[in-house]
Amino acid sequence: MKVVTWNVNGIRARELQVVEWIEREKPDILCLQELKAAPDQMPLSLAAPAGYASTWHGHKGYSGVGLLLRTETFPGTVLFSHPDFDHETRIVEALTPQFSVASVYVPNGGKDFAAKLAFLEAMGRWAREARASGKALLVCDDLNVALTDRDVHPKERKAGAIGQRPDERALLAKILDQGLVDTGRALDPDNENLFTYWAPWRQLKARNIGWRIDFILASEGLAKSAKAARVHREFGTSDHAPVVVEFG
Q1: What's domain 2-247's architecture?
Q2: Burial of 7 (0-12, 13-18, 19+ CB in 10 A)
Q3: How far is CA 172 from the centre of its chain?
Q4: By C-alpha distance, which of 145, 140, 132, 128 is closest to 218?
Q5: Is the pTM of this model over 0.90?
Q6: N or C: more exposed end of the chain, with fewer CB within 10 A?
């Protein structure tokens, strides 16, 4: 099973790249963030992609998430829902027979840091409730938080910067404490240059001077079947790269 998460930074701007990615990679699950488009603004090529159950949850010009499940892998009707802490169209969830999968876009926090902390706290409660009910989770997200200094290039590290603050990291750690595994790092533990986002200036992406803020988190039982992970930095023009994890 191939799972992909990707902040596209505008689905209309990246339409052809998303179409190419789907045709080339044929992901079983594709989670997209920062659509910057309402459902009725979705490009026709992506509104209802062949071979996928899909949903688009967004605002014009801001935020938004998408979730696509390959029907060959997940036959039958797929029910999409939004947890009660959904804020500014930032989370969509689908229940499969094996697990619940969610595409999540955490607020950046630059304009409303309190809202970011509240969202992360609510995510922690949601993950705790899922664990208590015995429901496995697969959470594909732009968390807008680097878990440790190691997840930020030395040239980008700045004490107190949003995305690197201790209070954000503590909330992210609490989410992981609910039996979730950071599969990207688990599969590539020694990579000091593992980044998923690069500020769009000074050729930082080409130079790989970035942050790791995009994650595929999996409940422990599911994470045991994760066998390969990769960040496709060379693909696309978004300031984020597609992040892929393959499960056996």
Answers
A1: 4-Layer Sandwich (3.60)
A2: buried
A3: 14
A4: 140
A5: yes
A6: C
